[in-house]
Design brief:
alpha+beta; FAD/NAD(P)-binding domain; D-Amino Acid Oxidase, Chain A, domain 2; eight-stranded mixed sheet; six-stranded mixed sheet; 35% helix; binds flavin-adenine dinucleotide
């Protein structure tokens, strides 16, 4: 199909081809709104970047309604149980049967991104890979612009009516004047060694192991790839963990001796994720609108990041459509107010999950206090039906 946008810009300029930018771009094209996506990395890189995997029912609804759900409906797997292990034993929560009665769809983020790229190009979209943006400006005026760099590094200017900053945590869009937005941030002082292992899931459900040596987690990704997490010291070099040290520690914290062995396999990827959260308020500055991780980072403890990115993209696409088709600027003006309560709910739950899964190791009185709180929280989740329903609503909802 013919590219729709002109050489020097488009009505909506989107920075970043992650879930937020790609969902937004696809929904705008479906609404007949001319847009352009500029992405720093290569197509191969973004289509291989393994991150999230658990999609909430609302996320699936948005994707399916936007004609973006064929892959996840064909290959995604329903998941409605999570298991908690601690020194007291193991219990399963069938959250798909609790609360709103909704399950997750497990569909790796890189497969979703691959589908979204293909669909955007199929719809005639202009997607420029290998094109970093170094500057965004003119946001107070009618014609905001950005400076992009082509394959040889030559800078060129793109102009539009709006800019959507979907360039993630380290992008340029969120570098706003200090008085433009209020930032709320928490560094949780906890880090995870995030591992992708070439092996089928060893366990039938997401499994969270609470251990005094630190948290460990098991999450299915595909029939042949499993994600494991191991809490590690902040600042750890991922290369300092040998394969044998990883499996020894996973066996110990997952209590393999008691509950059965894990399936070992080659470690395909290892990275250290520092658990951090931040929220920008408002998610807008002049004609720039932020979505996804660009607007706020959420710790991966409750698997909310990609889901919030998709939901914000839907809200923003609807607001752009109202402004451009109906000359109704109100939904754009309310964009932050619409998204932020949802974001804060997810932040609160993710923060609660951090307290459920971690506590300091030390033998000082504060560490002992926090460990006892963690154990009480876990016991309440095991025994209290109202707590279980509330957990289910928050765990799968966005
Ligand atoms: P991104 O996916 O980061 O996309 C931003 C894009 O912008 C990137 O492609 C980047 O290359 C591009 N970009 C950046 N700067 C520029 C620039 N200057 N110019 C042009 N392009 C630029 N979330 C969940 O919901 N569930 C999970 O289970 C989960 N697990 C995770 C596990 C790990 C290890 C990590 C790291 C994250 C996880 N997340 C999870 C979070 C989730 O992956 C992110 O929240 C999600 O990717 C956010 O999407 P986004 O489109 O906002 O940003």
């Amino acid at each position: 199909m013919k590219k729709r946008s002109s050489a020097d810009g488009a009505t909506v300029l989107i920075v970043g081809a992650g879930p937020a930018g790609l969902v937004l771009g696809n929904l705008l094209l479906a609404a007949g709104i001319d847009c352009l996506i500029v992405e720093r990395s290569s197509r191969e890189h973004v289509e291989r970047r393994a991150r999230a995997g658990f999609l909430a029912a609302d996320t699936v609804r948005v994707l399916v309604a936007g004609g973006l759900g064929a892959g996840l409906l064909a290959r995604g797997r329903q998941h409605g149980t999570c298991v908690f292990r601690s020194e007291r034993g193991e219990f399963a929560l069938h959250y798909g049967d609790l609360g709103r009665g909704e399950a997750h769809t497990v569909y790796p983020q890189q497969e979703l991104v691959t589908d979204l790229v293909a669909e955007f190009l199929h719809r005639g979209g202009d997607l420029r890979f290998g094109t970093p943006v170094s500057e965004v400006g003119g946001l107070d005026g009618e014609r905001p612009w950005l400076v992009a760099h082509g394959a040889d590094g030559t800078p060129y200017r793109l102009t539009g009516r709006y800019v959507a900053g979907c360039d993630g945590r380290h992008g340029v869009s969120r570098r706003l004047p200090a008085d433009a937005v209020r930032s709320h941030r928490r560094r949780h002082g906890v880090s995870w060694l995030a591992l992708l292992v070439e092996t089928p899931p060893a366990l039938p459900a997401v499994t969270y192991a609470v251990h005094d040596r630190g948290f460990a987690g098991h999450m299915a990704r595909t029939p042949s790839v499993t994600r494991y997490y191991l809490q590690c010291e902040p600042g750890t070099d991922p290369g300092s963990w040998s394969d044998s040290a990883i499996w020894e520690e996973l066996d110990l914290r997952m209590r393999a001796e008691r509950f059965g062995p894990l399936r070992r396999g080659p470690v395909l990827e290892r990275a250290v994720v520092d658990l951090e959260s931040d929220v920008l308020d408002p998610m807008q500055y002049g004609r720039l609108f932020l979505a996804g991780d660009a607007a706020g980072l959420i710790s991966p403890s409750a698997a909310k990041g990609a889901n919030l990115a998709v939901m914000a993209a839907e809200t923003l696409a609807q607001a752009f459509a109202a402004a451009l088709h109906l000359r109704d600027e109100e939904p754009l003006a309310r964009y932050s107010a619409t998204c932020l309560p949802r974001i804060w709910r997810a932040q609160e739950f993710s923060h609660w999950m951090i307290g459920l899964l971690h506590a300091p190791r030390g033998d000082d009185e504060e560490s002992r206090f926090l460990r006892a709180l963690r154990d009480s929280r876990l016991e309440n989740l095991r025994t209290s039906p109202p707590q279980q329903h509330s957990f289910a609503d928050n765990y799968v909802g966005v």
